[in-house]
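Q: Can I see a sequence and its folded structure?
A: Here is a first one.
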Amino acid sequence: MKRFIVPAFALLATAGFVIAAEVKSGLAAGESPAAFNVKDITGPSKGKSLCYRCQYGAKPVTTIFTREVTPEVAALVKQIDEQVGANKDKNMKAFVVLLTEDADAGAKQLEKLAADQKITNVPLTVFDGAAGPAKYNISKDAAVTVLMWNKMRVAANHAFDTAKLTDDQVKAVAADTKKILN
């Protein structure tokens, strides 16, 4: 009996990791991002509702959708902020969208994130509703979804079932910005 239980447990544990790694969320490569409004918490339009997707137009854009602000998400935002700063000559833009049912509490988290990480190039915003913009197909199983597009076509998509990203995951996402900088 022991011989059966141990391998079965190992198989189930491994299957759990495979399923977690395969979370699908957001637009697929080649799709066009639709307009949606957010409330700007730290950007140039602080306190206003606007559509950053509309404002940025056909420029290279990275958007981080997250359901929570963790130290790992903060590290990702910092990396993308640095990429935007380093690629101003290519008009790279980015914005973070906190998906939440409590916009006031979310705003406080984002203000703290901006101050602690010294975020200067990436507006931090709140979307009213944990489901996210309907046309973006953000999975309820995804804690973090990162979309990158240029000329209104998605070039890269990263989705994670947890907001506790590894350093390698953060680096891989940041490195993928090259896909939109042509």
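Q: Show me another, different protein.
A: A second, unrelated one:
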Amino acid sequence: MSQPNSTLTHAHETNPDPNKLPTLNGVEHAGVIDFMGFDDKTGEVLMLMIERRPWAQAEVQLFQLQEKLNAYLSFILDGEMAEAYPDLMGKPIRIRLECATPPTNQELFFLQHVHDQLALQSIAFEVEVAAPEGTNNTCGCGQPLSECCTD
């Protein structure tokens, strides 16, 4: 997978402030795109969201996920992505939520709704559960999930 403009797009902030320390990524950080790249095999722009926590605080996590999705959609639909990466204009987009644990029924209901709504915008959405400890536990960028997209 190549990244837009041959630059790694880990932790892309939608409103970066050069005076701040580097921002962490993950669902709990709504203003940060955890990872973005172009998949040469599928011809898609892949945008990852990382949820490292188990789904123990579903209401809080679903609210944070909704906020993160809104930030991703704003980046895509309001022209920020086109301005930052004009070579990606017109390419299909896939958003993948990578989770540490499988979602429960409450999360699945929400995630199905997200999938259906994004499909109306021609944006693919998928959920991937990280492999158990001791297996190939990496995210889409190839780093271990516990260290994904951190600088």
